[in-house]
## 1
Amino acid sequence: MIILEACKQKKIKAAVFDFDGTLSTLRCGWEQVMEPLMLEVLYGDAPTAEQVEQIRAYIRASTGIQTILQMKWICEQLRQQGRPARSPWDYKAEYNRRLMETVQKRRHAAENGASECYLMKGAKQFLATLRENGTKLYAASGTDDTDVKLEAKILGLSDFFDGIEGAKPLSEDCSKEATLTRLIHDNGGEGLLVVGDGPVEIRLGRSFGAATIGIAGSEIDLCGFDPIKVRRLTAAGSHALVDCFENVSEILNFVQGGFHQ
């Protein structure tokens, strides 16, 4: 565990998890689908090194937001170039088509006994421990609602959660923000834990006074710190970083005041 800032909460009454990259790795590599699509639409077959870095920087900064908002960014870039743009929903449909070519293969493997190959290490144990302690669990995702619920079921996670929310069809509502806001209202702003691998949920958690744990592990190895995620989640304001969920007691002791800088 990398402790960045002392954090002490009362008993954790509710925890909100990002899904993709935090618990599930079924969509690992989505950036490698997003990048060529954006480059193709914006710059054609021969982008410059500067243009490639622009796209990569945007993808890093936008990790965790709804896909449709990333597609709207494409449209805005085209308008700035003085070029016509298609509907952002058209770009999203093409992105999903390309991404699902890989995701479907992984889903099939997970359904046939390989689900642990697509979960960050210790994820189920951590969720089970929180449930046993009486914590209400919620998952919030920028992935489409039907997809995130199906993938939670495939990975054997559905029963841990009191609610799972993804992006709604033809909607730009921010499900993570809506879920966090509702939880703070329901819990009086105390005893809330936010866990994720993207800056969006960490920043929201901090703005609401929640304890925040950044999951900065390799989605390929299912553990082991990823330097890019470490930098990104540190900048977002995580109270602490872990590479996976294997050390359940260490994480919970830190959140509830067991560790101090």
Note: The mean pLDDT is 90.
## 2
Amino acid sequence: MHFVNAKSILTPHSMNIYRGCQHGCIYCDSRSKCYQFTHDFEDIEVKQNAPQLLEEALRKKRKRCMIGTGSMGDPYIPLEKELCLMRRCLEIIDRHNFGATMITKSDLVLRDLDLLDRINQKTKAVVQMTLTTADDELCRKIEPGVCPTSRRFEVLKACQQAGIPTVVWFSPLLPFINDTKENIEGIVELCARAGVHAIICFGIGLTLREGNREYFYTALDKNFPARNEVVSTGSTTVSMKERYQQAFGYNYMCSSPHERELMTYLASLCRKHNIMLGTDSVFKWIEEFPDTDPLQPELF
């Protein structure tokens, strides 16, 4: 890791305390060259003055809102356990009576459940948790540096018990790997049991561009070796990497051949369990800030 003093932190009401990640997820779009990293992705850039910048920014804001983090880098990477920058930022958000929401795959968020509960009592706190597969063994292959799905389910349950609303990012779903009805059913079942408010799903597939494509293909070679497949002329040996190259070439969007059927199935399961499903509609719900003023005493 290396430390920097950032010039600003909110853009306009979201922040990223860390630049880079240690989770090692094989599909991570943040590795893409378009984000212009000047250091190795695993050499985390730590914005050490993030709490001070956030304090200054919230003092100047005329209207309170939800403050989000995690869109480009998980705020609960292992370094956070020692550095506590995210916790300090939550303390500032709490003190200034703003709302808070974060996207994470880590159970370290449970450390800050007390602060999230305090924020939620006054305004609003939403925990967003990424789940991609209901299979822990597969999870360890595609997301090797973070707690498995079963543990993330426990995090969602703990939030439910604390009265903190949750959203699950069901993305990405990797063609030929976890784009199955069984996986969708397993994830939605976990969400229903944990009282998840909404699921964000951008479709059944993933995006690949320069930077993350190469990392993804290297991981496929390592974790999904070649296997025999039956074709019209007999059988052949095909690796998962070759399947992707044959199906998608250098496409940015790599959609499952079963996308329409699986999205219909996902929607039907969400209706059955009364779970909100969408993208823009869910983001709108997350960003909605309560009208109540925690500083204004009730008249009656």
Note: The CA atoms of residues 3 and 89 lie 17 Å apart.
## 3
Amino acid sequence: MLKAKILIIDDNKSVLSALDILLKCEYKHVHTLSDPNLITSLPTLKEFDVVLLDMNFTASINSGNEGIYWLREIKKRVPDIAVIMMTAYGTIDLAVKALKEGATDFVIKPWNNDKLLSTIKLAYSLHRSRKKENQQEEKEGALKTTLDKKSNVIIGKSPVLQSMLKLIYKIAKTDVNILITGENGTGKELVAKEIHKNSERSNEVFISVDVGALSESLFESELFGHQKGAFTDAKENRIGKFEAANGGTLFLDEIGNLSLQLQVKLLSAIQQKTIVRVGSNKPIKVDIRLICATNSDLESSVHQGLFREDLLYRINTIAIESPPLCQRGNDIILLANHYLEKFREKYNKTDLKISEEAQKKLLAYHWPGNIRELKHVMERTVIISEGTELMSEDFILNAKPAISQDIGSKTLGEMESIMISNVLKKCNGNFSAAAEQLGISRQTLYNKVKKINNDQ
């Protein structure tokens, strides 16, 4: 049996059942999904090798546009995944359109079992080949990559932002370790890139790692690398993020989510300026500028015994606070217009502008999701807009999510599942924004969603 992980997405339960039976004879991991809306909140999407995607999910609509939409969403999240489109209403034009959008192949229902298995096997082979090429390019290009200075610009003129920028420019030329604090969605990674851009290392690599999303088992391999054969899936030698960032800047996001055990390993690497790959005993010297970020109060975490004080001192030579959007006044409009320009071009709506009343509404809103929320609001509003001016009523700003279903007879676990589902829908599948509203870490939310999906 092949180790490939297959995901089948089709609203027809009979189709799902038939494909599940057929493919489980060939593949160890087969997962089915009847609701395409769950795709964007599926934390394990990147783990799949091949996706079989239906092209029509609404009765009486056979255009295939729904499938094309979900194909784009999947490829947006996992660019190198292999997607095979399925439809009972196949035409040459539809097949060509799907292939242009990144589909690997096209299958007509009802399918021939042997031909379908052959198509999936070929798609899996292409996926593995593409993945290996991408990994090789990542390793070869890691030490050469520089920031695109035009695409990483901090936008704003507010006093609180200018004060932060003044501090950035003062400390950027030094090599001290920096801790960036602030709420989720305030642009802490952009602040880190601005520091790197103005540092002596600006022509070297900037490597970003969301350490809060790393599992205990992957942490060492991801940061320090591994030797071939170090564990079951270690098919080749792989450099870690510390080595990749050698000579440049390493940005560790969500540092407050690390367990105490992982904190010890990170502290050792920072103190010694040396790492050891998993499966090796050879120390490797690394020269990096370390920038960390968190939305947690690390001093409080130290008092609670959740964060090591010695590690806090190591990463916190200088602290920079990324201000929440609600404190930045008219920067809200500057950012809204920035995203408006971006999405006008993306969705071919070049004449759009924001009305004065709409601007007042944006300025009055508290923006709990900060810049990330503003970006999602602008994209959604541009998509649904019909005229040439975005009016106040066009902007649907999120209120606190409520549990809409009847919970009178539900268990605590079912209530939690409902709440998570509602919040994810409100946040358009954005895990960071949803985690913030729920008051939990992004990794905790990933784990809860994974458990909910496994229980269903």
Note: Residues 142-150, 400-407 have pLDDT under 50 and may be disordered.
